[in-house]
Each structure stands twice: as structure tokens, then as C-alpha cells.
């Protein structure tokens, strides 16, 4: 099973702060932001990205635009859908401190 592609190095974020999410296509009809704890061993870089294969999403992962209060590395998965236009998913490798 293929997982998200992300940036190579984790983006530094501060726990508990809010982040803003915007889309060039305008506000979607549906969207989610899920904070998935990154595995201890990040995948090796490939052609400028990290390909997270079969990443496990825990039963009740943090969601929303507030950065988790637990420090660590995360793969942020952003999913957006526009009625009649389609959908897209983004992955962002982040480190919360």
C-alpha cells in the first residue's frame, strides 16, 4: 500500500499553536488534517521526497489545525474534496517541539 509523499526534512512546529491551511482552488467542500505519528525510522529519501509506505494511522489520531501538544515527528495528511471537481491529498513531514 502506498502512503503519502512528503518533504525530506521535517518542518519545525511549536506544540499547541494554530496553523492556517489554504488551497489555490478555493475552500473545499470537505477537508481534513490528520496528525499521524511518524515511524521511528523515516523512509530513505528518493528523488527529493520521502515516500511513506503503509504508514499506520492510529485509532484516534489528533486532527485539526491546532498543532499537537505531544512533541515528536508527525506526517500531516491533508485531504480536500471539491464537489464536481475532484480531490487531493498532501503529506507534510513535521517535527513538533
Task: Report on this structure.
Helices cover 0% and strands 41% of the residues. With 97 residues, the protein is mainly beta. The protein has one domain (5-96). The chain has a four-stranded mixed sheet, with no helix packed on it. A three-stranded antiparallel sheet has the order 1-5-4, with no helix packed on it. Strand 6 and strand 7 form a beta hairpin. The model has no long low-confidence stretch (mean pLDDT 92).
Q: What is the string of helix and strand elements?
A: EEEEEEE
The helix count comes to 0
Number of strands: 7
Write down the overall mean pLDDT. Answer: 92
Helix content: under 10%
Given as residue ranges, the uncertain stretches (5+ residues, pLDDT < 50) are none
Give the radius of gyration: 14 Å
**Which outline best applies?**
globular
Mind summarizing the main beta sheet? Answer: 4 strands, mixed
Spatial gap, N to C terminus: 30 Å
Overall tally of structural domains? 1
Estimate what percentage of residues fall within beta strands. Answer: 35-45%
Spell out the key features of this protein.
single chain, 97 residues, mainly beta, 4-stranded mixed beta sheet, 3-stranded antiparallel beta sheet, 41% strand, globular
